[in-house]
Backbone:
């Protein structure tokens, strides 16, 4: 029997079970007028959506695509961005529901039934969180009793996959807090006979909404910075430039671009000026070693040669210095391009 990928297997099982339990919570909440339980059901639907995004991103990330030389490498980053937006929508839903419940509180009918479903949701989310932790540790639950022996040993996950799973884990964590609120509010209705007990649920709902919004913002910022091709926060271009230009055969560095393709793949492109082609050949290995030490996964280094009778300031080359004598491939057509600095019309 062919064994399927463990990550796909676990995520698929978690998605289907989450959808089923979300339907149960919404039906029970509608029958017994528990708006908190209905909100928890919608919350679980958002959980399922985040898990679906994570699964799609994981499946497509490794597939080749002829129209993109990098394949689907950023599909998981896009999934992480969608997850963060869903978290913001979910946070807004919790806040709106809490405000409505505070203005017009409704007493829960049959709180024992609602309490049972709430406890079931609490247990379900704990198991789901353990499953995600089994796929990828999220620094909250280190080990878990959940062990699937009928699947292959799970593969090493990429950083972007970890981002998607982190977003899904945040969804489950938020739903876990809502399930706790369901248990607290229904327990208060069972044990206390005061009018103010009906306000416990909406007031406490603001607490998880606050923490969820912070987590969603961090996930949104990280995924958006990758899609915008911003320089990774842990890499300093100035430091790398200083290390490269400190080499005796490197005259200067310009047009240095550095970005993340996905969560764990950093790419760089730079122009290095040498006196002769021999200097380039003798330095290229050391330059790549410096980039690798700084966390750059792949780099494209364009050599430019400055063997010219002109007096050139290699630390701050002028536009004229960067002309024909500076780059062997340059022509008049480069004047309108943005890959290199512009050139003076003077020759």
Residues:
């Amino acid at each position: 029997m062919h064994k399927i990928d463990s990550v796909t297997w676990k995520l698929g099982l978690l998605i289907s079970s989450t959808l089923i339990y979300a339907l149960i919570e919404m039906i029970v909440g509608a029958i017994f007028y528990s708006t908190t339980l209905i909100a928890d059901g919608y919350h679980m639907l958002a959980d399922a959506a985040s898990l679906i995004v994570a699964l799609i991103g994981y499946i497509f990330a490794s597939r080749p695509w002829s129209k993109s030389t990098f394949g689907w490498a950023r599909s998981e980053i896009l999934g992480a961005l969608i997850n963060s937006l869903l978290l913001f929508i979910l946070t807004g839903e919790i806040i709106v529901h809490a405000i409505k419940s505070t203005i017009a509180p409704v007493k829960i009918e049959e709180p024992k039934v609602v309490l049972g479903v709430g406890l079931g949701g609490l247990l379900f989310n704990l198991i789901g969180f353990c499953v995600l932790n089994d796929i990828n540790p999220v620094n909250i639950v280190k080990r878990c009793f959940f062990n699937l022996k009928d699947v292959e040993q799970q593969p090493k996950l990429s950083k972007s996959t970890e981002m998607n799973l982190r977003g899904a884990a945040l969804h489950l964590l938020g739903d876990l807090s809502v399930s706790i609120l369901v248990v607290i509010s229904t327990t208060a209705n069972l044990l206390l006979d005061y009018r103010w007990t009906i306000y416990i649920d909406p007031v406490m709902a603001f607490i998880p909404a606050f923490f969820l919004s912070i987590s969603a913002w961090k996930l949104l910022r990280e995924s958006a910075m990758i899609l915008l091709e911003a320089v990774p926060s842990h890499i300093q271009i100035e430091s790398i430039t200083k290390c490269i230009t400190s080499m005796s055969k490197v005259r200067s560095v310009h047009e240095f671009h550095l970005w993340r393709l996905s969560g764990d793949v950093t790419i760089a492109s730079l122009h290095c000026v040498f006196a002769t082609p021999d200097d380039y050949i003798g330095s290229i290995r050391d330059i790549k070693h410096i980039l690798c030490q700084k966390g750059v996964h792949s780099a494209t280094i364009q050599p430019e040669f400055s063997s010219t009778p002109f007096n050139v300031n290699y630390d701050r080359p002028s536009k004229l210095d960067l002309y024909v004598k500076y780059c062997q491939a340059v022509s008049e057509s480069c004047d309108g391009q943005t890959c290199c600095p512009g050139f003076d019309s003077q020759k």
Remarks:
- The first helix runs from residue 6 to 31.
